[in-house]
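Weekly structure sync, notes
Attendees: PL, DS, HV (note-taker this week)

Item 1: Prefoldin_2 domain-containing protein
DS walked through the input record. Source organism listed as Cephalotus follicularis. Sequence as pasted into the shared doc:
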Amino acid sequence: MASNAGGDHREPGNEQAVVNMYSSLRSELNQIYSKITELEMEVSEHSLVMNAIQPLDQSRRCYRMIGGVLVERTIKEVLPAVQRNKEGLEEVVGRLNEALEKKKKDIAEFEAKYKIRIRKSDSEVKDDSNRKESSAQGVLVGPASSSE
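Item 1 (cont.): predicted structure, written out as tokens:
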């Protein structure tokens, strides 16, 4: 996810360098997508925990994992901490979404500058044609009857 401030100012010398830079950009994009997905899952888990403990008695015992150590607290102490963590995660997801949009824009500019077009491999083309055939299978249409 390392991104250069202001973009990459190096001009690739040959076609292979362009391909390498493009694949590097795509790799960074995929890493951002993965991190966003991971953090969104954590936000979801935090929401589940909050929804589970919110209606309970605030003085009830509750256990929380802090740095690999399970500590005993009350719901009154844990709920605000879980809420703060969730808000922090949402903020990070927001920043990652901004970085994702910037990376998409950088890739689009790179594609336009070097006239890059993604070509499907033979196996993907075959898969697409198989999908079209299989989607048409299984449909039975009877003869149209004029008298009902």
